[in-house]
Amino acid sequence: SAIYELSCEAYKHLGKTSNYYWIDPDGSGTLGPLKVYCNMTEDKVWTTVYHDLQMQTFVGGNSPEKLSVLQLNYSATMDQISAITSSAEYCEQFISYSCKMSRLLNTPEGNPYTWWVGKANEKHYYWGGSGPGIQKCACGIERNCTDPKYYCNCDADYKQWRKDSGMLSYKEHLPVSQVVVGDLDRPGSEAKVSVGPVRCQGDRNYWNAASFVTSSSYLHFSTFQGETSADISFYFKTSASDGVFLENLGNTDFIKLELKSATEVSFSFDVGNGPVEIVVRSPNPLNDDQWHRVNAERNVKQASLQVDQLPLEVRKAPTEGHTRLELYSQLYVGAAGGQRGFLGCIRSLRMNGVTLDLEERAKVTPGVKPGCSGHCTSYGMYCANGGKCVEKYNGYSCDCSKTAYDGPFCIKDVGAFFEEGMWLRYNFHSPGTSVKDLVSRTLLSSADPEITGPDLSLNREELSFSFSTTKSPCVLLYVSSYTPDFMAVLVNPTGNLQIRYNLGGTKEPYNIDIDHRNMANGQPHTVNVTRNGRDIVLQLDHYPPTSYSLPATSDIQFNSPKALFLGKVIEIGKIDQDIYKYNTPGFTGCLSRVQFNQIAPLKAALRPTNTSSHVHIQGELVESNCGASPLTIPPMSAATDPWHLDSASADFPYNGQAIGDGVNRNSAIIGGVIAVVIFTILCTLVFLIRYMFRHKGTYHTNEAKGAESAESADAAIMNNDPNFTETIDESKKEWLI
Fold this sequence. Notes:
By secondary structure, the chain is of the alpha+beta class. The protein contains 12 helices and 45 strands. Strands 12, 14, 19, 20, 21, 23, 24 and 25 form an 8-stranded antiparallel β-sheet that branches.
């Protein structure tokens, strides 16, 4: 059988991004795998399980029944969901009751009209935003209900629609399996019920770890009950070449897992037919201070051992003889009687589907420390684009602050759409500091000794960004200085890219022209320019890098850099004639992940950081991924994702059977985007033709915001998601040109 990861947390630590995944919360236990949606955010991992109750399910309208029972069927069994909630750090489920003359909970003394049924078929008389034992709604706790005599908006019994909603977050009671609605038997009584998916965050089992600091130290637990079947899995990390992971003894029977040498893991046991040993040999050393996973299983038919992704070693059991493993001693973890113990870390130790709490036991055991440090050695490679791996007690995170990217792994481009005439300036020094501090502190990496000198000049620059536009000529980027020195990246009138350097010593600026490639074709293009002294290397898109050299007479110092401009150059003093011409009307299009040495000006503008004071913007900067290369539509942001419910008031679109069946919604969304784009284009063309016949002048298109004008649920999602409207806006603009 395929081995699935135990949780979404485990998938994140394989560098996986948000998507549907199969998880198996109890290993090879009886529960079996289930499909969940894993949402990987910067600092948390959310596991989401969906059900089939439609949002805003209507009940009432003079129904003869006294009670209306709404049943929720999940895409997982209750036991599977319990396995997720019990190992999670926090779980929540959104619940909402919209009412018209239909009371919800009544008063704290009276019997409630409506209740919900949670785990273990228990009834619960509290509502979203409240907690166990408090028969109130969120407004009753916040004291802002429609009628102050009651503790729910609906209990005021008004003839107008009212609503009580909020998060249920007492995870021992989740998930909601039924909602029973009671106050519907009067004429005019109506209600709508919405229940969100169950969302859990954190995985206490995955990070439950202990560090063994002396070779004589060990943890002990009660005897392992694995008579006919044993399933043991854990992660280890060590720089020692041998040591016992765990052992449990009987009279003659035993079971033991150990690191025999730097490249060998051994699983040995005796059920009365003599000792059996299975060894996995690794081609690479296992004592490299990185996490390695061990999986050992034994049943009456066979035994097996797997380490990481190495081939599984299997041994068949003899057809005759003993089959029961009879153990009496305690289970020792980290050492065994008289043998050399294990030095290093063991985490997420599961025996027959149950995670042993190594952390709690380590707190009271000398020579063993709870938790484990040093996760970056194993996971640091997932932090991309210069992101730094940061150690956390439970795992790691990527610090993207020194990059032009964000997201959990620093792979999400930060970019913006520039309307005509818009520009951004990034000052290399903040107001009120001397020129000298400026450059040495912000512009230059302190790791570079030759450029922190008193002359405040650059011997080298590294510039990278991506862009898309359909208008030429324009100025993409310009770096000014307190001297005549400058550097510019331009698109000339024929749509070709030009890099222009003026460092002094030459009559004319030095130009690198990339002819025969139209860059103003609306497609995203990437530009990387590196200058080291006289040598310049330029890489464009996926073409091989090309090298250029500044003329022999040219100065190689970029003296006193002052500011970086995007979209347009607004600088005092004399300005290059061509650049002056290209400046009007200015750049229209998209710029993304702009980085100049250590500086990411677009990110500083769009993400409030300590460098944001350096940024000045003219016009409205709209975040967009339209300049990202390759062009991607990332998952929706939390604020606009209809499944991401932070705001208790959000009532979100119907989640239908499709999600329950685990249909990937990305394909539906992309299909919707294409449909909307085509529809928009057709409308625009019709509109354009009519308009041209009526007016011979300029015109504007106004994007209809919000869901009112949406053609479908997909369109509504997209109209509310800035990423989508920008992509659509973009295509409109291109077609209008």
